[in-house]
Write a structure and sequence with these properties.
Serine Threonine Protein Phosphatase 5, Tetratricopeptide repeat, DNA Cyclobutane Dipyrimidine Photolyase, subunit A, domain 3, 478 residues, DNA-binding, five-stranded parallel β-sheet, single chain
Length: 478
DNA sequence: TTTTGAGTTGTTCGA
DNA sequence: GTCGAACAACTCAAA
C-alpha cells in the first residue's frame, strides 16, 4: 500500500500539508508531477513560467532524492496518468494541495469524485493560502469586494497555522513506477530570450528561502518608502516563488512574526506590517478569483463589456517591445522582457498607459503579462489588470490616470531605472530623461539621440490621450 | 430597511 | 513652489 502525492503549484518539501499527511500515514510515498497543459485550459502556463517550472522541477527532484525519495514525472491527461500510476503502484491514497483557478478547480473536483468512486482515498489540503476563499465572508454571508474590510476580517479570524517543517526522510516504495525525462515536457523554448532570467533568479525552495532571508535581514527596513522605487531592491521579489509554491505564505507570515519578536523596533515592525498587508492582497486576489471565476476573461463590472477598446495592433506591439517613446513605460516593458519580471510600481504605469493612453483592452495586457512574467499568477494578474482598468472589485476610480512623465520624475527622479533598461538614452540629462521629446535639439544631439531614429517619438500625446480616456469613461457611465 | 462612513498605489488647476 | 480642492458619484459592508 502506498500514497501518491500529486504535486502541482506546491513545489517544496517544507510546509507541504499533502506531503506531510502522506508521510504521517506511514505508507511509502510516491511524489508525482504531471505535465498536463491541456486540462488547465486557456490559462495554462506561458513561456516565461515554463522556464521557471523547468528549474523548479529540477530542484525539487534533487531535494526529494536527498531525503531518500524521487520525483516521478508524467505527461498527459492528469486523470489518466493518476489512474495508470494507481494501477502500477497499487496506491490506495492520492493526496494533493488545492488550487483555485476556475478550470483547475473543475478538473480537480472531477478527478476527486472519480477516485472516490473507485475506492481511492483522495484528499486535498490547503498549501498555498493563509485563508481559503470560502472561509472569509461578510456579515451578509457574501464574498468581500473591498480589500480593507476583507483584511480586517482575515486578521480577526486569527493567526495563520504554523508551518510544518520539511521531512528528513521519506519512505520509498519497494519499486518506483516509470518516470519520463524532464526534457520530454519541452518547457524550454527554442528562442533563447531567457538568458537574462538565469542571472536574475534562483528558482527552487532554497532560492526562495534565501530571497526571504535577504529581504527580512536587509531590505524590509525600507519597504514602505522604497517599494515604489524601481531602481532599488526594496521589494521581496518572492512572487514567482509564491506562485510555484516554493515557499508558502504561512512560512513567510511566521518568519516575519519571529523576526518581529526578536527585533522589537517600532520601525521594523511597521515596515514589515506593510509587507504582510501585501501578502493579504494576494489572498484577496484568490478570494475574488474563486468567487468570481468569470473575471479572468470578463470585467467584474458588467457595463465595461461594452467599452469601445481600440484594435490597434501597431500600438500594442510598440508597447510590448518597449518602444512607446515614454521612457518609464519602455524601461518597464524591457525589464519584463529581459528578466521575466517587472517592478510593481512600473506594472501600474505600463498598464495605465496601455489602457488609458492607448485605449487598448486590459485583456491584451493581461495576456502579454501572462506569457512573459515568471510570476504570472491568474489571481494576481486578473485583479491587477481589472484594478487599473477600473472594471474590477475595489478598483481605481476612472479618473485616476497615470502620467508617465510625472510618475517617472516622482519614482525614478535620477533616471537610474530608465537608464539601466534603455541604454540608448543614458546620456540624456536628468531634467529631460523622462521627456526626451521636450529636450532642446542640442541637448539631444550631445546625448546622441535622434528621435524617431534611435529612440521613438511619443506614440501618443499624453495630455490629449488623457482627455479622450476621460470622455470614453464618462460615456460608459451615461 | 435605512443610514453611515469609507474606499492601495493620481493628476491637474488655481489660489 | 506649495497646497487644497475637484475630478463624480457609486458601491460596499456594517451598524
Amino acid at each position: 500500500m502506498s500514497c501518491l502525492v500529486w504535486l502541482r503549484l506546491d513545489l517544496r518539501l517544507g510546509d507541504n500539508p499533502a506531503l506531510f499527511e502522506a508521510i504521517k500515514a506511514g505508507d511509502p510515498v510516491i511524489p508525482v508531477y504531471i505535465h498536463d497543459p491541456e486540462s488547465e485550459g486557456k490559462w495554462r502556463h506561458g513561456s516565461a513560467s515554463h522556464w521557471w517550472l523547468q528549474q523548479s522541477l529540477e530542484k525539487l527532484s534533487k531535494s526529494l532524492e536527498s531525503v531518500g525519495s524521487k520525483l516521478i514525472l508524467r505527461r498527459g491527461d492528469s486523470q489518466r496518468e493518476l489512474n495508470k500510476l494507481i494501477q502500477e503502484t497499487r496506491a490506495e491514497k492520492v493526496f494533493w494541495n488545492r488550487r483555485y483557478e476556475p478550470e483547475v478547480v473543475a478538473r480537480d473536483k472531477k478527478i476527486k469524485d472519480a477516485l472516490k468512486v473507485a475506492g481511492i482515498d483522495a484528499q486535498s489540503f490547503n498549501g498555498s493560502l493563509l485563508t481559503e476563499p470560502w472561509t472569509i465572508q461578510t456579515g451578509g454571508k457574501t464574498p468581500f469586494k473591498v480589500f480593507t474590510p476583507y483584511w480586517n476580517k482575515c486578521v480577526a479570524t486569527g493567526d495563520p497555522d504554523a508551518p510544518i517543517s520539511a521531512p528528513k526522510k521519506i519512505l520509498a516504495p519497494s519499486a518506483w513506477p516509470k518516470s519520463c525525462a524532464l526534457k520530454e515536457f519541452a518547457l524550454i523554448p527554442s528562442i533563447k530570450w531567457y538568458d537574462g532570467f538565469t542571472r536574475e533568479w534562483r528558482p527552487g525552495e532554497s532560492g526562495a528561502q534565501e530571497e526571504l532571508d535577504l529581504f527580512l535581514n536587509k531590505n524590509v527596513i525600507q519597504y514602505l518608502s522604497g517599494r515604489d522605487i524601481p531602481s532599488i531592491r526594496a521589494t521581496s521579489r518572492l512572487s514567482p516563488h509564491l506562485h510555484f509554491g516554493e515557499i508558502s505564505p504561512r512560512q513567510i507570515w511566521h518568519a516575519v512574526q519571529k523576526k518581529s519578536a526578536k527585533t522589537k523596533t517600532v520601525g521594523w515592525i511597521k515596515q514589515s506590517e506593510g509587507f504582510v498587508r501585501q501578502l493579504y492582497w494576494r489572498e484577496f486576489a484568490y478570494h475574488l478569483l474563486y468567487h468570481f471565476p468569470q473575471t479572468t476573461d470578463h470585467p467584474l463590472r458588467k457595463e465595461f463589456e461594452k467599452f469601445e477598446w481600440k484594435k490597434d495592433i501597431k500600438s500594442l506591439k510598440a508597447w510590448q517591445q518597449g518602444k512607446t517613446g515614454y521612457p518609464i513605460v519602455d524601461a518597464g516593458m524591457r525589464e519584463l522582457w529581459h528578466t521575466g519580471w517587472m517592478h510593481n510600481r512600473v506594472r501600474m504605469i505600463v498598464a495605465s498607459f496601455l489602457i488609458k493612453d492607448l485605449v487598448i483592452d486590459w485583456k491584451e495586457g493581461a495576456r502579454w503579462f501572462w506569457d512573459t512574467l515568471v510570476d504570472a499568477d491568474l489571481a494576481n494578474n486578473t485583479l491587477g489588470w481589472q484594478w487599473v482598468a477600473g472594471c474590477g472589485a475595489d478598483a481605481a476610480p476612472y479618473f485616476r490616470i497615470f502620467n508617465p512623465f510625472t510618475q517617472g520624475e516622482k519614482f525614478d527622479g535620477e533616471g537610474a531605472y530608465v537608464r539601466r533598461w534603455i541604454p540608448e538614452i543614458a546620456n540624456v540629462p536628468n531634467k529631460w530623461i523622462h521627456r526626451p521629446w521636450e529636450a532642446p535639439a542640442e541637448v539631444l544631439k550631445t546625448a546622441g539621440i535622434e528621435l524617431g531614429k534611435n529612440y521613438p517619438r511619443p506614440l501618443v500625446d499624453h495630455a490629449h490621450a488623457r482627455k479622450l480616456a476621460l470622455v470614453l469613461y464618462a460615456r460608459l457611465k451615461a
